Amino acid sequence: QVQLVESGGGLVQDGGSLRLSCAASGRIYSSTFMAWFRQAPGKEREFVAGIRWGVGNTYYADSVKGRFIISRESGRNMMYLQMNSLKPEDTAVYYCAGDRGGYSRMDSTFDFWGQGTQVTVSS
After folding, report:
1. Region class of 10: left (phi > 0), else alpha (psi between -120 and 50), else beta
2. What is the spatial distance between Cα 82 and Cα 61, in angstroms, rounded to a whole number?
3. Distance between CA atoms of 38 and 13, rounded to whole angstroms?
4. Which of 67, 66, 32 is closest to 50 using CA atoms?
5. What are phi and psi of 91, to 5 degrees?
6. Which of 5, 24, 33, 72 is least surrounded by CB atoms within 10 angstroms?
7. What is the DSSP letter of 27?
8. Whose CA is closest to 47, among 11, 79, 95, 118?
9. Which residue(s) pair with 23 in the sheet?
10. CA–CA gap between residue 38 and residue 49 (Å, rounded)
């Protein structure tokens, strides 16, 4: 069983940067699709960025493309989300999640989740 723990959230000003980390307690296998999701108050959870663990292919929501970078250190079972040029609309709880055997952006397909970390961007 893989357990995920997010860290690195906080309060940042408009235009600032944050780096989120996701630590996995168990091995993330090459076939796993790892992703970051976020959920703002009153809104549905949405896909932010994903990475195919084995090959390293990355995917981004249009809203964050060019601003966020997803990366991993597979040997340490760590995943990161570097967030630059943050906007107030990026304010949300950010979750890391894993999907064994696929790379859909649908949150219902993911098998394991972290508890989330709050990111607040002030205007």
Report:
1. left
2. 14
3. 18
4. 32
5. -60, 125
6. 5
7. P
8. 95
9. 5, 78
10. 10
**Which one, of 106, 15, 102, 113, lies nearest residue 53 by Cα?**
102
Rounded-to-integer distance, Cα 36 and Cα 110, Å = 11
* Count of C-beta atoms within a 10 Å radius of residue 72: 19
Neighbouring C-alpha atoms within 13 Å toward the C-beta of 21: 9
The one-letter code for the residue type at 82 is Q
> Can you read off the two tokens belonging to residue 95?
């979750």
pLDDT tens for 25-71 read 988 889 999 999 999 999 999 999 999 999 999 999 999 999 999 99
Nearest in space to 113 (alpha carbons), one of 41, 17, 45, 14: 45
* Rounded distance between C-alpha atoms, residue 59 and residue 107, angstroms: 14
